[in-house]
Write a structure and sequence with these properties.
The chain is of the alpha+beta class. Helices cover 37% and strands 25% of the residues. The chain contains 9 helices and 9 strands. The longest helix is centred in the N-terminal third of the chain and has 25 residues, at 26-50. It starts with 25 loop residues before the first helix and ends in a 5-residue tail after the last strand.
Length: 367
C-alpha cells in the first residue's frame, strides 16, 4: 500500500521558529519593532483610560472578518481594520475632551513587562483520516481560551482558562469515544496556572497541580457514575484502563506538562517568542506522537518562511517533514501488518507525515 496511512497521521501544531531567510534580517526587524512599540504602548494605554474609553469601545463590531479563522488573509484584513478603527476612535475622544494629539507621559513610571493583562484566544483543529484517498473519519475541535499574563503582576506567570470546548466527529461511534477524551481535557485544561522556562518559553512548572488533580478526581467520580450501567466486562475493563492512564498523566506533573504541550493551543502559544527575540524564525525540530501507530514517536524537521510582514505583524508559513533517518520503519511495518493489513489487505510500503501551517503573529506584543 502506498501508505495513505502515511496520511496526515493527525494534526500537527506548533509555536514559533523559522529558516534563515537571506532577504530578511529578523534581528533588526524585531528589535526595531520592539523599541518603537514599547515607546508607544504604555502611553497609549493610559491615554485610553484618561479618555474614559474601554477596550470594547475600540472594537469595530461591523468588521465582517472580526474573529475570523477562515484564512490568514481574513485575519490580516481584520487586524488592519481594527487598528484604523481604534486610531479613529481615540482621535474623536481627544477632540471631544479638547486634547491635542501630542500627549507625552513619563515612560520611566511604567513597566508593561510585569503588568497583568488578559486576552482571549480561539483555537480550531481539524483531523481527517483517509485510507486509499477515502475519508474514514474526521474530528473537529473548537476551543476558546482566556489567558492572563503576569498573573498577580508576577512576570512569567500565566493563568489559562478554557471557556469553550466543542467537538464534532464522524462517524457517531468516534464521537462517543472522543467524548471521553473531551471530559478528560475539561478536567486537565479548564484552569491551569503555570510558569514558563526563561530560555524556551515552554511550560516550566504547573502552579496549581493539586487543584487539577482534585478536579480530575471529581470528574472521574462523575464519569464512573455516568457509565455505571455498563454490563460488558470487556467494556468495563477498557473504561478502567482509560481511568488508569489518565491518572498517570494527570497526577505526575512531568507527564501532565507533556500532555498539555501536546494540545494545539499550548503547543502554539507557549514558545520562544514569549521570552526572547532571538532566532524566532530559525529551523527547529519537534516530536510528534502518532495517532495511528500507538507508541510511535516521529521526529519532524521544520523550516519556516516569512510570507508577509508589517511593523505590527508577521505572516509565517511552517512546513514540517518526517526525518526518515530517525524513523523505525521495521516497527511501523510490524504494527501495520498486525492492526491494519487484515482489513486493508495491501502490503505495507512506507510511512510519511507532514505539517503545513500559516501563522499570524502580532509583533507589537512580542517581547
Amino acid at each position: 500500500m502506498d501508505d495513505h496511512i502515511n496520511i496526515k497521521d493527525g494534526l500537527g501544531n506548533r509555536g514559533q521558529s523559522q529558516s534563515n531567510s537571506k532577504n530578511y534580517n529578523h534581528k533588526r526587524f524585531v528589535s526595531e519593532t520592539k523599541r518603537r512599540n514599547e515607546e508607544k504602548d504604555a502611553e497609549e494605554q493610559r491615554l485610553i483610560a484618561s479618555l474614559g474609553l474601554t477596550e470594547n469601545d475600540l472594537i469595530d463590531r461591523d468588521d465582517p472578518d472580526l474573529g475570523s479563522t477562515r484564512s490568514a488573509e481574513a485575519m490580516l484584513r481584520s487586524i488592519e481594520r481594527q487598528k484604523e478603527y481604534k486610531k479613529r476612535k481615540i482621535e474623536e475622544a481627544k477632540k471631544k475632551k479638547g486634547l491635542g494629539t501630542d500627549i507625552v507621559e513619563d515612560q520611566k513610571s511604567y513597566d508593561n513587562k510585569s503588568i497583568e493583562r488578559t486576552l482571549k484566544y480561539r483555537c480550531e483543529q481539524m483531523s481527517v483520516t483517509r485510507l486509499n484517498g477515502v475519508m474514514v473519519n474526521s474530528t473537529q475541535i473548537k476551543r476558546d481560551f482566556l489567558v492572563t499574563e503576569n498573573t498577580d503582576n508576577v512576570s512569567g506567570v500565566f493563568a489559562v482558562k478554557m471557556q469553550d470546548n466543542i467537538v464534532n466527529a464522524s462517524p457517531q461511534s468516534l464521537k462517543d469515544a472522543v467524548g471521553l477524551l473531551m471530559e478528560l481535557d475539561n478536567a486537565m485544561c479548564s484552569n491551569v496556572v503555570l510558569t514558563v522556562d526563561a530560555h524556551s518559553g515552554k511550560i516550566a512548572t504547573i502552579q496549581n497541580h493539586n487543584d487539577i488533580i482534585s478536579g480530575w478526581n471529581t470528574c472521574k467520580a462523575s464519569m464512573k457514575d455516568k457509565y455505571s450501567f455498563l454490563r460488558s466486562n470487556d467494556t468495563r475493563e477498557k473504561l478502567e484502563e482509560f481511568f488508569h492512564i489518565a491518572d498517570e498523566q494527570i497526577c505526575n506533573q512531568e507527564h501532565l506538562k507533556r500532555m498539555l504541550c501536546s494540545k494545539l493551543f499550548y503547543d502554539v502559544f507557549f514558545d520562544r517568542y514569549l521570552v526572547t527575540n532571538e532566532n524566532l524564525y530559525d529551523p527547529y525540530e519537534r516530536t510528534f506522537n502518532s495517532q495511528l501507530f500507538e507508541g510511535l514517536q516521529v521526529q519532524l524537521d521544520f523550516n519556516q518562511k516569512i510570507q508577509r510582514e508589517s511593523p505590527d505583524m508577521v505572516l509565517v508559513q511552517k512546513i514540517g517533514k518526517t526525518n526518515k533517518d530517525k524513523l523505525n520503519l521495521s516497527e511501523i511495518k510490524k504494527f501495520y501488518e498486525r492492526k491494519y493489513q487484515p482489513a486493508i489487505q495491501y502490503k505495507f510500503s512506507d510511512y510519511n507525515y507532514s505539517i503545513r501551517e500559516s501563522c499570524v503573529f502580532n509583533t507589537k506584543k512580542i517581547g
